Backbone:
């Protein structure tokens, strides 16, 4: 039996503050829930409408109406689970790392995490003001990838100062990604905010600046979607290397 | 003075049925409104909170509360305009065309339209069941590109039968886009639904099948975001050609 207090608690996890205070977050949908169950994240509780998942404790069958009440989705799937946070593991520096500076759209962040996993990027480092990767919209658009990619929030400037590596920044003044002659074997690829790009204090630190050139030189469109840009750059760099 | 009936009318344009019945749609945000004003779309009426736009008839200054009431956005910009539909122009076949089969997510469609414009694709053809490009979410995520890219809704199978051209389909069984030896100079690049890909009746018609290979062969992630895939494929094909 799920009481009022429990319902209120689940709904409160929409907010970062409550997620941090309670050390947990919500995952929805059978596929994503299953992927988190296979990961290092510890299940707190699973709510399911139809059938329970075999070999899992801490689950409760609830009716559809209740699920719709506690769900963050317009069309909720039959599974909603609460998981405990895990601490990010040590950042591995022997491959590409993706750094995100002030990314604000949760749908973009989720898509970027999924794209990073596709291209074999295991570590994402986010500026402290980047949207929280445990927000429901990020979890939803990342389609389970949050359970496998190592995501750390830190002071990017300090990290770059303390960890010398090749910094590749996206910039309007960069060189075309199609003209890169020398393969980049490892390093940090830095993407910026949806409207403002990589902040100027970080731009100064970049060793290589790249851009995705526009087909024609007309004014429009002003930019590409950020998650799309990440896909294009990773596709190009991973292939070159 | 904006009356109740007018408010109801604007809000009704959230639905495709009402857009079609009234031959018009909503554009929000100063940037997008300005881009539509420069296009062939005819303005029906502009609602603005702060200042009117110079040299434009049919505008009304309203207060912020009213704008929030009629807006489709969580954080409305100060401009909301209604434009009349235009008929799509004739499809140009001397370049790449992007075909979308049963695309269902409006955010994806908007991002795809914006990406197409970036890479110089002027014509997009959509299956009849693809989400409407005049839906508010599409207009929003396309960032003005709907005003410049020629988008037609048609029976894709019939179009492919009637218009012989090189059909390039994305498929799990396709060849890696990185292994394409022969440049593809023109043709139709076909992308499918977010969950089911290109439908089997269209798959049979493809001349070339391509895929974006995954970095490692593990099970996850199962797929890339559709709009990201479109960006990666266009970036690769446009560069080869």
Residues:
């Amino acid at each position: 039996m799920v009481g009022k207090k429990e319902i209120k608690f689940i709904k409160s996890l929409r907010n970062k503050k409550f997620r941090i205070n309670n050390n947990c977050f919500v995952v929805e949908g059978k596929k994503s829930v299953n992927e988190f169950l296979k990961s290092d994240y510890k299940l707190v509780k699973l709510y399911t409408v139809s059938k329970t998942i075999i070999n899992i404790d801490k689950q409760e069958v609830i009716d559809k109406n209740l699920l719709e009440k506690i769900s963050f989705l317009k069309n909720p799937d039959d599974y909603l689970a609460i998981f405990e946070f895990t601490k990010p593991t040590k950042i591995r520096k022997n491959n590409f790392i993706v750094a995100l500076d002030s990314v604000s759209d949760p749908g973009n962040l989720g898509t970027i995490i999924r794209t990073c996993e596709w291209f074999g990027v295991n570590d994402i480092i986010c500026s402290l003001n980047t949207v929280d990767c445990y927000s429901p919209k990020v979890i939803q658009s990342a389609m389970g990838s949050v359970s496998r990619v190592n995501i750390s929030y830190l002071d990017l400037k300090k990290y770059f100062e303390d960890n010398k590596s090749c910094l590749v920044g996206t910039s309007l003044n960069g060189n075309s990604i199609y003209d890169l002659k020398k393969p980049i074997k490892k390093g940090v690829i830095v993407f910026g905010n949806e409207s403002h790009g990589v902040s100027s204090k970080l731009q100064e630190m970049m060793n290589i600046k790249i851009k995705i050139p526009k087909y024609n030189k007309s004014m429009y469109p002003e930019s590409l979607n950020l998650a799309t840009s990440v896909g294009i750059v990773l596709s190009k760099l991973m292939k070159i290397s």
In short: Chain B touches chain A at residues 35, 107, 111, 114-115, 117-120, 141, 143-145, 148, 178, 212, 214-216, 220-225, 227-232, 235-236, 238-239 (CB under 8 Å). The first strand of chain B starts at residue 24 and ends at 28.
